[in-house]
Amino acid sequence: RRPPRATLFPYTTLFRSGAYVVREQQQDDWEQSAPGVGEYVITLESGETLSDLDFGNYQFATIEGIKFHDLNANGIQDEGEPGLAGVTIEVVVDGEVVGTAVTQDDNLETEEIDETGTYVITALVPGAYVVREQQQDDWEQSAPGGGEYAVTLESGETLSDLDFGNYQFATVEGIKFHDLNANGIQDEGEPGLAGVTIEVVVDGEVVASAVTQDDNPETEEIDETGTYVISGLVPGAYVVREAEQEGWEQSAPAGGEYLVTLSSGETVSELDFGNYQFVTVEGIKDRTFAGKITSL
């Protein structure tokens, strides 16, 4: 409730007619919001009471959080997921950046705390802001869900846990080979097989695929025939399998497909597929009677 006028202006009756400046003594850690120029210039007449000479004050607000490597891309900083230093966090009003901070490196003097990836932005006037990170090449954002935070800060408030999660795409690679002896291993001399589709599957749905390559004549020292690379995979669990082909049987992998869990930035290699074709034998059976050969 607004205090009585006598409390606000205990010496009102002591003023003589004339011109005055009315101001407040500045206080540490407080900013003035009213009056606009910081003080009132007034002229009092005999017997006059001048009201509404009000002073508004506020304290700066603060936001803080962490930028972390979201290894499993689930949008949460799980145990063991490290902070990422050197990334700029921005505070924005109407599209204009009004405050920034760079996420920190660890402070070696505080052994019990790892500050890597943390940021603090202070001296924010109470009001509405957007908090976002500067995008980085080769990184994707998993948190927050909409890519940025819309916040409204009050005087003296510290708003925490404005965290940003990021990950890098993962990759799977391998070779599809002609397993001449059907032993499930690519032995020396067993060639790759081009033109076969390798699929990456989640819950029965193909989310990515690649066709095994022909040899690149420009790389004479390497034979790329049968190799494949599938990139751009969000960290998570996948099935990697080959599309079936008529006239071919599979010798590798043993279960017919690979179950893999990919982490941020990971490349899983040697997801190889071995195939063979059935062999046919044919000939003739002979029987000999009394020195004669009779064909059956």
Gyration radius, rounded: 37 Å
The count of strands amounts to 24
Give the SSE order as H and E letters: HEEEEEEEEEEEEEEEEEEEEEEEE
| SSE-based structural type | mainly beta
Mean pLDDT: 93
Helical residues, percent = under 10%
Q: Give the low-confidence spans.
A: 1-8
Distance between the termini: 118 Å
Strand content: 35-45%
Q: Counting H and I runs of at least 4 residues, what is the number of helices? A: 1
Described by strand count, sense and barrel closure, the largest sheet is: 5 strands, mixed
Shape: rod-shaped
What does this structure look like?
By secondary structure, this protein is mostly beta strands. 1% of the residues lie in helices and 44% in strands. It is built from one helix and 24 strands. The longest helix has 4 residues, at 5-8. The chain is rod-shaped. The model is unreliable at 1-8 (pLDDT under 50).
Q: What is the element layout, followed by pairings?
A:
Layout: H1 5-8, E1 18-23, E2 31-34, E3 39-44, E4 56-58, E5 61-69, E6 88-93, E7 96-102, E8 118-124, E9 127-133, E10 140-143, E11 149-153, E12 158-159, E13 164-167, E14 170-178, E15 197-202, E16 205-211, E17 227-233, E18 236-242, E19 249-252, E20 258-262, E21 267-268, E22 273-276, E23 286-289, E24 292-295
Parallel strand pairs: 5-12, 5-13, 14-21, 14-22
Antiparallel strand pairs: 1-3, 2-4, 5-8, 6-7, 6-9, 9-11, 10-13, 14-17, 15-16, 15-18, 18-20, 19-22, 23-24
